[in-house]
Write a structure and sequence with these properties.
Chain B: GO terms for molecular function: ATP binding; ATP hydrolysis activity. Chain B: Keywords: ATP-binding, Cell membrane, Membrane, Nucleotide-binding, Repeat, Translocase, Transport. The structure holds two protein chains of two kinds. Chain A is mostly helical. Chain A has 17 helices and two strands. Chain A has a two-stranded antiparallel ribbon. Chain B is of the alpha/beta class. Helices cover 32% and strands 26% of the residues of chain B. In chain B, strand 13 and strand 14 form a beta hairpin. The radius of gyration of chain B is 24 Å and the shape is globular. Chain B starts with a strand and ends in a 12-residue tail after the last helix. Classes of the chains: A mainly alpha, B alpha/beta.
Chain lengths: 400, 506
């Protein structure tokens, strides 16, 4: 294929109505490339290494005589960084129990991340995983501890409750966008607040109150409503894999996914081709909410976490990072979810074994976010040849 | 200023986009660069403007070798560029846009707007570029915005002006005005590099014509070379510039618009009580200057906008309330005016775009799943049949040249049985070779008994294809005529000057 008319374009595209086509695909241009994602992780680990060095007393002391005996500084730094990161690895994948911890933390991130990914592919920025998870938790928890039902059926009902209520909560944002044009970033953020007050409202009710406790805390779900466990690992995590495969199939192989991707990339062309853009918005947000509901069921029905207003932790927000780091693809989301699960599990060991502040794992996550969000910086540092598109689109996200 | 290019080569990986190009732009000449989309014109100009680094070769200004690392270097050397898509800030005034990047201030950082406006006035007077410096750019018509771009370049003391496909966005009147401006600039000593693929324009203003094909200069010609010869140089084979067609065998009325009125979101009536009939086996051309309601009219035919009043009948059924999906399923084929906006999804592969409105049919899906084999087979046959130049069926459509992108849209719309084909600007931004092909397919579709509606602002196209011509002005059809009407008469109708003098009313 040496025909110039075909091969020239990718490298030197003629300016074919740039303003409009860029607006149409603005969401996609947010996505980092694989290189960007890997570079962001590497860079975060490098900055993390510096932080480990300077949070180690021995290294700081060695600085006071740096000019007479610099070797100490480098030696102690090396040891500190090695100890810290080896503890991180040990704590995340070094033993059976640490693997279990990593996977247990990764599974909800993956599910909620898939919800963000799916919405993203439909051209929407779903900030509402948090609220959708909270609503799912209310349903799963209530069904789980309030009723006495046969093993199996109880679990299924509680799980269905979480998925349905999460889906409804996501669907509200989709409906508002489709019918009124309300921007999903605003509505999902607001629904997160509403969700938090919904769970506080319920926690104030007698039914949701754990006996003999003064805190706003529910009882854990009954054993009949929990996921079975093998080697200490609850089998709900398998659902994360199923969900990832399912979303991959939906996006890449189904007619509905074809519509989602078309609407996400160019809603005008999708409409002209006879697709219903509003139906795609609504259904995509419903499924995204269902995935958040599934995510929180891993916590409520898997780890038997009691309901509090902090039930979702920061999973709903980390899910956004996971989806972006994973380039809004199902496989990428799974990998990014595992990484974040590992960071969070290993962070504890890092503190216990190497004396590194526990916040460092969170700082690493935050740094990854920062570097993923600043592809121009990362590309400059690594001299990666980007396609130049992701540069200068910082303000375009609103155009979706 | 004399600009010389010697052996300029640009390679992208193993691909050579520009191969040892030699060009000399003499002071005060209009040098036309003629070539199909994707021939390498833009690559060459991007090197001249400091946007791309040449792999080999050199650029000389007044016999002095120069290197352009950024556009600022080229501007400093006296090169100005007017891009096909304007680089203006819509909410700024003309004067503010012109001063952008070289803002003059009066103490304390206060912008000296008065001086900028005076500069614009001076330039516009000297070169006959009529522009009001205090108007907001967003309120100006496209042709005037282009003048602002030219003034911007001149304000930087450009002595060589590169105009990249400047006529693609203009109406026939605006094109005439632009050519007048180009002659004026030339008379004042500015050289112009005029990039285009329209032969008529090259012959009208060019002093010298360099033809580029597949990254090489294949020849230089003078403006008295015939259009057919130029086209042959450009495409590399002989090309038909007229449309071959037999007289139409007109059948039943297929599409019947009755008193269609469309109101835009701002509440203005943009289509006013339009009625027409499209018959099987004929091409109805809708002529008119851009922005006289054609866009909204055909959108209402497909159901993309709902008419505020009036009815649309297809084969004796009222389809006024149908959305695009039903209309497509009823057998309306639609080639939208702005293909990048409405016609394809740029990030989708050629294969996917070829089924963008067919994926849900039984041919390409099995229940909820896409039938990937059928979609791939469809892509293979369409790419072959329509000679779509793409590396693979998996390449994103945005990586194709404009002509090939349009072929993807056309191929898709022709891949199902049609009752009505609505094609808006079917050959805008498309090279000569592809225009010939697309026109041929449209006439074939007509001869198959489809009612064809062509909307175009290019009179050549309207005359070449149509069996009847309806002229739109200010949201109304001001007359329906046959193509034997004189060009001037139809031009007057397009300008709303007079009612048709029964020049063969249909």
């Amino acid at each position: 294929m040496s025909d110039p008319t075909t091969t020239e374009k990718p490298v030197a595209p003629e300016p074919e109505r740039p303003a409009r086509s860029r607006a149409a695909s603005s969401m996609q241009s947010w996505l980092p490339t694989v290189k960007d994602s890997v570079a962001a992780i590497v860079l975060a680990l490098l900055v993390g290494a510096v932080l480990i060095m300077f949070s180690t007393p021995r290294v700081i002391e060695s600085l006071s005589y740096f000019f007479s005996y610099p070797w100490d500084f480098f030696k102690f730094s090396g040891i500190a960084v090695f100890d810290g990161y080896s503890a991180l690895v040990r704590g995340s994948v070094g033993s059976g129990s640490s693997l279990v911890r990593t996977i247990e933390r990764a599974a909800p991130l993956i599910c909620a991340g898939l919800g963000v990914t799916l919405a993203f592919r439909a051209g929407m920025f779903n900030i509402g995983a948090q609220g959708q998870m909270i609503l799912g938790a209310v349903a799963a928890g209530y069904i789980g501890f309030h009723y006495d039902l046969p093993v199996g059926l109880h679990l299924l009902l509680a799980l269905a409750g979480a998925i349905v209520l999460g889906g409804l909560w996501g669907g509200i944002a989709g409906f508002l966008k489709a019918r009124t044009g309300a921007h999903e970033v605003i509505t999902t953020i607001m629904l997160n607040y509403v969700g938090r007050f919904v769970i506080l409202f319920f926690l104030g009710k007698e039914t949701f109150q754990r006996p003999n406790s003064d805190n706003l805390l529910s009882p854990p779900v009954n054993d009949s409503a929990t996921f079975p466990a093998v080697f200490g690992l609850h089998l709900g995590v398998l659902l994360a894999i199923v969900a990832a495969l399912g979303i991959w199939w939906l996006l890449e192989r189904s007619t509905w996914g074809f519509e989602i991707r078309a609407v996400g990339a160019n809603p005008q062309a999708a409409r002209t081709a006879g697709m219903s853009v509003s139906r795609v918005y609504i259904t995509a947000m419903v499924v995204a909410g269902m995935l958040s509901g599934l995510a929180v069921s891993m916590m409520v029905l898997g780890r038997q976490d009691p309901l509090t207003d902090q039930i979702a932790g920061s999973v709903g927000f980390d899910a956004i990072t996971v989806a972006l780091l994973g380039r809004a693809t199902p496989l990428g989301t799974v990998l990014a979810g595992l990484l974040f699960g590992a960071l969070s599990a290993g962070g504890l060991t890092m503190q216990a074994a190497a004396g590194v502040p526990p916040e460092l794992a969170q700082v690493l996550q935050a740094l990854i976010v920062l570097f993923v969000a600043a592809p121009a910086l990362v590309r400059g540092l690594f001299r990666l040849r980007g396609d130049g598109q992701a540069v200068g689109v910082e303000a375009k996200g609103w155009g979706g | 200023m004399k600009l010389e290019i010697r052996g300029l080569t640009k390679r992208f990986g193993s691909f050579t986009a520009n191969d040892a190009i030699d060009l000399t732009i003499e002071p005060g000449e209009i040098h036309c660069l003629l070539g199909e989309n994707g021939a390498g014109k833009s690559t060459l100009m991007n090197m001249l403007y400091g946007l791309l680094d040449p792999s080999e070769g050199e650029i000389l200004v007044d016999d002095r070798p120069v290197t352009f690392v950024t556009p600022a270097d080229s501007i400093a050397a006296g090169i100005g560029m007017v891009h096909q898509h304007f680089m203006l800030v819509p909410v700024f005034t003309v004067a503010e846009n012109v001063m952008l990047g070289r803002e003059q201030t009066r103490g304390l950082g206060v912008l000296n707007r008065a001086e900028a406006a005076a500069r614009v006035r001076e330039l516009s007077e000297r070169y006959g570029l009529r522009v009001d410096p205090d108007r907001l750019v967003e309120d100006l018509p496209v042709g005037v915005q282009q003048r602002v771009e030219i003034i911007k370049a001149l304000a930087n003391d450009a002595q060589v002006l590169i105009l990249d496909e400047p006529t693609a966005v203009l109406t026939p009147q605006e094109i005439d005005e632009l050519m007048q401006i180009m002659r004026e600039l030339k008379a004042k000593g500015t050289s112009i590099i005029f990039i285009t693929h329209k032969l008529r324009e090259v012959k009208a203003v060019g002093d010298r014509i360099s033809v580029i094909r597949r990254g090489k200069v294949v020849g230089t010609a003078s403006p008295d070379t015939s259009e057919a010869e130029l086209a042959e140089m450009m495409v590399g084979r002989s090309v038909k510039l007229t449309v071959d067609k037999d007289a139409a065998t007109t059948g039943e009325v297929v599409l019947d618009a009755r008193g269609v009125t469309v109101v835009d979101p701002r509440g203005h009536q943009v289509v006013k009580d339009v009625s027409f009939e499209a018959r099987a086996g004929e091409v109805l051309g809708i002529a008119g200057v851009q922005g006289n309601g054609q866009t909204e009219l055909i959108k209402s035919l497909l159901g993309l906008v709902r008419p505020a009043a009036g009815e649309i009948w297809l084969d004796g059924r009222n389809i006024s309330t149908h959305g695009p999906r039903e209309s497509l399923e009823d057998g309306i084929g639609y080639i939208p005016e702005d293909r990048a906006h409405d016609g394809y999804v740029g990030s989708f592969s050629v294969r996917e775009n070829l089924v963008l409105d067919l994926y849900r049919s039984d041919d390409f899906s099995r229940g909820p799943a896409l039938n990937r084999e059928a979609i791939a087979a469809n892509a293979r046959s369409r790419i072959e049949e329509f000679d779509i130049r793409t590396e693979t069926a998996d390449s994103p459509v945005s990586s194709l040249s404009g002509g090939n992108q349009q072929k993807v849209v056309v191929a898709r719309e022709f891949s199902r049985p049609l009752k009505v084909l609505i094609a808006s600007q079917p050959t805008r931004g498309v090279d000569v070779g592809s225009i010939e092909f697309i026109h041929k397919r449209i006439i074939e579709e007509r001869d198959r008994g489809t009612a064809v509606i062509i909307v175009s602002t290019e009179l050549d196209e309207i005359f070449g294809l149509s069996d009847r011509i309806a002229v739109m002005y200010d949201g109304r059809i001001v007359g329906t005529v046959t193509p034997d009407i004189a060009r001037e008469d139809i031009g007057l109708m397009m300008a709303g000057a007079h009612e048709p003098a029964e020049g063969g009313a249909a």
